[in-house]
């Protein structure tokens, strides 16, 4: 029914040992992501979202379970599957162009071709004219765009994004979300993003995975039927949003337990 | 206007220092040969400059210092990059460094003479030792505090190990290494005098030791003044470099 | 200022003899020797190397980085005792040490309980202190002997931190010239013909280059004779090495002799027995083992 | 188990060092009086311990060091707090510090004798000087980098100036000051030898200087070993303190 | 018509000189805040929100214009008007109790009474049992509550909050917002808060001041009529929300200019 499966996580568990105490952080997480999908993982702080993303990207090994990308088990980080970090992970001593070229230096490309390819992706995120600037000279939103261009330049099968827009203000965030949708449409990249922002999850994704904590599990999966591009004020959007709020008991109907953070 | 006013402040501060010194001499009624006054020391410096000794000593000291300091920096940075990346190795090397570091060059000098002879070599070796440890320690610290995100990015783009070191670890650690280089220039310049005690026949340190032995305390003081002033200049130069690195690396706005 | 700074590098086959020294009056003959003919003699070339302290000099001598030195005889004997192959071939000078005390010290007894500086336990100066106390009927422990760098002694005396000191020249003259101290004894009053600094060479040099050594020692003895004239030229040459003012130099030259630099067996044995008596050494090297008088003997 | 394995690593590292030393002695065929072997040095240490000299020297050195280091720390911190808060004052004082700092204690010693005499005082003064400047510099830096938010909070609650200094500025700067204290312990311990050269008759530094005077290089090496080992111990102790401060102040988790 | 005026800002302007260039950051900002009101200042990153708050609190002096609190001109920071900083400004070397007591140490209070008063406010924010803990042992949400207790303990006339909940996740943010409303009801404190989160502004405030940038000015004032407590899913709420989105041109109706951040 769904398109070809890009990522398949089965029975992922992860424990951390801290000061001699072993605590389960993730327990039996399984899900699949199809070609060209955008999936959001939504959950409270500390529920294990980043840990899950690190397992998917191969940055850490699960204690149990496996991750497969295009059927191949993941044993370490690879260029197939690029992670975008919350604070962008741009190298401050390189120019914007140098940053985008980073991922291409590995390939046997002549310098001119490498530069051209990097410029193509910079153009795509609208930062052509900033190629010579250093990251510190850019606003947070621009930096996130550079990181996106750098990731796309190696043409990965899968993009992992860890709270990609949490550090920019609401207005910029809205713009970046729109851009991400446009670029994803053009590049047909598969994206898994982690967020604690309900609106973001609903606005961007085809499916939302709601995570519970202690240990982290996927509690519910919610498909978002509305067609993209969506209208943040539209009734369909608001309906899904309300469903999520209710799932997390955040509407007036059932008052939030007061001191449970 | 800012740098100008800073230079003015420096000049004023040094003037204050000289005034305080003159005051001590006058209040204490010290004999000229026990505590020379600024004027006498100035005469001493002029005397040294006239005879050409000053310039010669300065040049030879700066050359020795440069040889010791730069070779120490290069070795310490290369070693530090390696040790900082390989944690178990550093666990072993760290105690060795900590045991060797606090031993004064004066104590080492019999062995330094044995291995390196007399003249230029011991001075360079002693300055090398004095600069090596601080730079090594700060490089290791810098490498170990490289932002984990950068390392993950490098893994993600499948950078090979050597390129990881040259393209990610080194530049990322560089601002802190530069700070270490700045600290080390001060601490190693101190050891110029110790270094030039071991059979050197020239240099600022030799000037001080020799003048001390013939009880020309005015020339000792002249040497102190020169070492102090050149220490300040070296510090300021490397400080500028450090600031430039900081700006370039986006540490400050 | 110093001759050794600008030793011309016209390389010949002649052996270069590197001799270490401290800038003190006691190394006088060496200064004259190097100044004569610019140190370029038939059969060898002399290169003087200045050091900042006895230990620095001894490090270089023991490690074979210099061929010889004008050094405290006690230190050289100590090194010999430790197994370093050294031979003493001549004296540096005769007499020339003074006991300097603060102006308010009238007699030795006044030193009781006060600090008194010597350069090192292994020195003629320590023995002189011992002699002085013994003559005055006091025990060695009656004064607090402190080891201090010679350069620090005049300042320590002037500021009242020590009551007196005995050390190589010109440090004694310094205090006298600035009226911060006075001479209590000259060394010959305490120990006639005292052995102090000696010209010491490494055994391997003597074995490999006996002719050069002979020429060197001969020139040394001659330089001693010349130094003994203490004329204007000698003083001029001294000042190239020591950077002293005239008063200090004149005074310290008054006290010293350079004429007969042979190491006599008598005074040497005296030194040995003092070292044993003071408990500084159990087994100081015998005259036959350590002193090689043959070179001086061949000098007419 | 962690601290145990760390101690084991340290012990193993030191063993390696001793082995390397033995190897150098054997390969170089050095004369015992030029480069003593570990065994000879161990014998030397035992000899010193037997005669009681070792313990006495150690005690007196540690006392002198403590006196110099602690008084320097207190003075430098108090002065640093003041200078760090008053920016124009620091602009004046900074060049003076930078001129005085690079001058070796050896060069100062004629003047130190003139003012402080001989014996304990010069050793303490030299250690004081060696510890004072690094602590002062790091305190000033710490005070100037106190988070502006804390200062604003204090203003907001109308804290009077003195209380601002004791309740906000000092505790907030303390982790960095502690780091400065840690650095300074290493750099000032080096100067024990220089300090105890000036008319001291006891102490580890004196042991080295004196043994050098009497050409007992085995005892010089014994002194080096003791200085090294105690330097390591001091460093580790202050390092623990620094880590504790860091944890207490929430710098690390 | 409105209650007694607590704060009155008239004609505030502020310029900063950076590398020799003087740039206006605020231009002619005027508004009033009444007793017991909650006012939000909403604007994009860098439009001068923090600068404005600093002027109101007396941390910086305006180049033109005046700020009056209860009719008195503001000349510097004071206990009348406490600022809550974005990163809470808790002193890491003091316990939670010690932090709350900070503002009380100035008053001539016996230690026991001081402690009692601090505990009262800790109880109010539900952190009684954390009195002995250190800030680093608390989650972000808890830390913000401690900062709130510390501010309230000195019983200020006015509370200034700079993006108070920007650093916590959405779920925690919702809870904290509810708590802030409850406490404000109990304490009857007047609050001015700065935010870039549209939902937050609409949920909390009686009036929203929309700021424009370059230089910062107040473009519009928007009263939020809905009664508190509000329902995030309710139609009234969504209506105001939509109005704001439209003002900032963030709904689909008028597509956002793409690369204008
Ligand atoms: N390396 C680690 N060692 C020990 N515990 C860890 C480690 N990494 C994460 N944890 C713990 O695992 C839990 C989940 O962490 P994680 O970072 O995955 O949460 P998150 O959902 O991403 O939170 P946030 O929204 O705050 O980023 C936390 O309780 C954290 O303390
Ligand atoms: N001390 C200062 N010196 C120079 N320029 C400043 C200073 N403080 C702020 N600015 C400038 O003033 C403008 C407004 O800054 P401000 O911090 O008030 O914005 P903001 O609305 O709070 O932004 P954000 O939402 O990112 O916190 C910015 O362009 C900033 O660069
Ligand atoms: Mg996370
Ligand atoms: Mg702000």
From TrEMBL, chains A, E:
SUPFAM superfamilies: P-loop containing nucleoside triphosphate hydrolases (SSF52540)
Superkingdom as given in the UniProt entry: Bacteria
UniProt xrefs under Pfam families: ABC_tran (PF00005)
Keyword Cytoplasm part of the UniProt annotation: no
Domain ABC transporter: 7-238
Keywords, sorted A to Z: ATP-binding, Nucleotide-binding, Transport
A GO molecular function held by the record: ATP binding
InterPro entries cross-referenced by the UniProt entry: AAA+_ATPase, ABC_transporter-like_ATP-bd, ABC_transporter-like_CS, ABC_transporter_ATP-bind, P-loop_NTPase
CDD domains (UniProt xref): ABC_NrtD_SsuB_transporters
Protein name: ABC transporter ATP-binding protein
TrEMBL record, chains B, D:
Membrane-related topology note: Multi-pass membrane protein
Pfam families recorded: BPD_transp_1 (PF00528)
Leader peptide range in chain numbering: none
TM stretches of this protein: 62-84, 96-118, 124-143, 164-194, 214-234
One Gene Ontology cellular component annotation held by this UniProt entry: plasma membrane
Subcellular location: Cell membrane
ABC transmembrane type-1 domain residues: 58-238
Keywords: Cell membrane, Membrane, Transmembrane, Transmembrane helix, Transport
Alphabetized InterPro entries for the sequence: MetI-like, MetI-like_sf
Family of the protein in this entry: Belongs to the binding-protein-dependent transport system permease family.
Name by which UniProt lists this protein: ABC transporter permease
Organism: Cohnella xylanilytica
């Amino acid at each position: 029914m769904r398109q070809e499966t890009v990522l398949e996580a089965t029975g992922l568990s992860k424990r951390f040992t801290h000061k001699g105490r072993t605590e389960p952080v993730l327990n039996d997480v399984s899900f699949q992501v199809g070609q060209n999908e955008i999936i959001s993982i939504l959950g409270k702080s500390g529920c294990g979202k980043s840990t899950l993303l690190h397992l998917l990207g191969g940055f850490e090994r699960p204690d149990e379970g496996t991750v497969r990308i295009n059927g191949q088990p993941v044993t370490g980080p690879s260029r197939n599957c690029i992670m975008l970090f919350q604070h962008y992970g741009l190298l401050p001593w390189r120019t914007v162009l140098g940053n985008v070229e980073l991922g291409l230096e590995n390939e046997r490309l002549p310098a001119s071709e490498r530069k051209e390819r990097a410029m193509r992706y910079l153009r795509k995120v609208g930062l052509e004219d900033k190629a010579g600037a250093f990251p510190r000279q850019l606003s947070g939103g621009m930096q996130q765009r550079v990181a996106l261009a750098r990731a796309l330049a190696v043409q990965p099968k899968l993009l992992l994004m860890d709270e990609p827009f949490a550090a920019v203000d609401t207005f910029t965030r809205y713009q970046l979300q729109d851009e991400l949708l446009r670029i994803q449409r053009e590049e047909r990249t598969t994206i898994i993003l982690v967020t604690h922002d309900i609106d973001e999850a609903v606005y961007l994704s085809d499916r939302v995975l709601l995570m519970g904590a202690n240990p982290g599990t996927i509690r519910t999966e919610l498909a978002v039927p509305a067609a993209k591009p969506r209208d943040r004020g539209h009734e369909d959007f608001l309906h899904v949003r309300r469903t999520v709020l209710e799932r997390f008991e955040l509407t007036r109907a059932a008052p939030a337990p007061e001191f449970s953070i | 206007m800012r740098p100008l006013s800073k230079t003015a402040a420096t000049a004023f501060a040094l003037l204050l220092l000289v005034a305080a010194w003159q005051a001590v001499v006058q209040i204490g009624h010290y004999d000229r040969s026990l505590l020379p006054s600024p004027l006498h020391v100035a005469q001493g410096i002029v005397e040294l400059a006239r005879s050409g000794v000053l310039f010669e000593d300065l040049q030879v000291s700066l050359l020795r210092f440069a040889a010791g300091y730069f070779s120490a920096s290069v070795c310490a940075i290369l070693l530090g990059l390696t040790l900082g990346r390989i944690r178990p190795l550093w666990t072993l090397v760290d105690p060795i460094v900590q045991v060797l570091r606090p031993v004064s060059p004066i104590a080492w000098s019999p062995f330094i003479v044995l291995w390196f002879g007399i003249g230029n070599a011991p001075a360079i070796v002693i300055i090398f030792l004095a600069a090596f440890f601080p730079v090594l320690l700060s490089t290791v610290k810098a490498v170990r505090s490289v932002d984990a995100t950068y390392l993950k990015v490098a893994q993600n783009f499948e950078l090979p190990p050597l390129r990881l070191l040259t393209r990610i670890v080194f530049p990322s650690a560089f601002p802190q290494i530069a700070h270490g280089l700045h600290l080390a220039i001060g601490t190693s310049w101190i050891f110029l005098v110790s270094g030039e005690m071991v059979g050197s026949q020239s240099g600022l340190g030799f000037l001080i030791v020799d003048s001390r032995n013939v009880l020309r305390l005015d020339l000792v003081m002249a040497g102190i003044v020169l070492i102090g002033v050149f220490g300040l200049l070296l510090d300021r130069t490397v400080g500028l470099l450090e600031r430039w690195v900081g700006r370039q690396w986006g540490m400050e706005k | 200022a110093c001759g050794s700074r600008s030793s011309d590098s016209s390389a010949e086959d002649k052996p270069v003899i590197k001799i270490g020294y401290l800038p003190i009056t006691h190394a006088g003959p060496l200064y004259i020797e190097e100044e004569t003919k610019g140190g370029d003699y038939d059969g060898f070339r002399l290169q003087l190397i200045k050091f900042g302290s006895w230990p620095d000099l001894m490090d270089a001598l023991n490690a074979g980085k210099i061929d010889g030195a004008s050094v405290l005889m006690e230190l050289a004997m100590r090194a010999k005792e430790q197994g370093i192959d050294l031979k003493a071939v001549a004296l540096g000078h005769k007499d020339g040490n003074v006991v300097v005390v603060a102006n308010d010290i009238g007699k030795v007894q006044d030193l009781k309980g006060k600090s008194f500086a010597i350069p090192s336990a292994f020195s003629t100066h320590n023995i002189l202190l011992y002699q002085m106390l013994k003559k005055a009927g006091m025990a060695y422990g009656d004064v607090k002997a402190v080891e201090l760098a010679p350069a620090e002694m005049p300042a320590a005396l002037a500021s009242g931190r020590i009551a007196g000191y005995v050390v190589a020249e010109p440090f004694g003259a310094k205090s006298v010239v600035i009226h911060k101290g006075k001479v209590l004894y000259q060394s010959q009053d305490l120990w006639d013909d005292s052995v102090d600094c000696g010209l010491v060479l490494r055994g391997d040099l003597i074995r490999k280059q006996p002719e050069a050594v002979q020429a060197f020692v001969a020139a040394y003895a001659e330089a001693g004779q010349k130094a003994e004239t203490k004329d204007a030229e000698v003083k001029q040459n001294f000042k190239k090495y020591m950077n002293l003012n005239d008063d200090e130099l004149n005074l310290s030259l008054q006290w010293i002799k350079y004429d007969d630099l042979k190491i006599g067996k008598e005074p040497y044995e005296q030194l040995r027995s003092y070292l044993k008596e003071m408990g500084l050494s159990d087994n100081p090297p015998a005259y036959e083992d350590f002193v090689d008088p043959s070179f001086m003997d061949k000098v007419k």
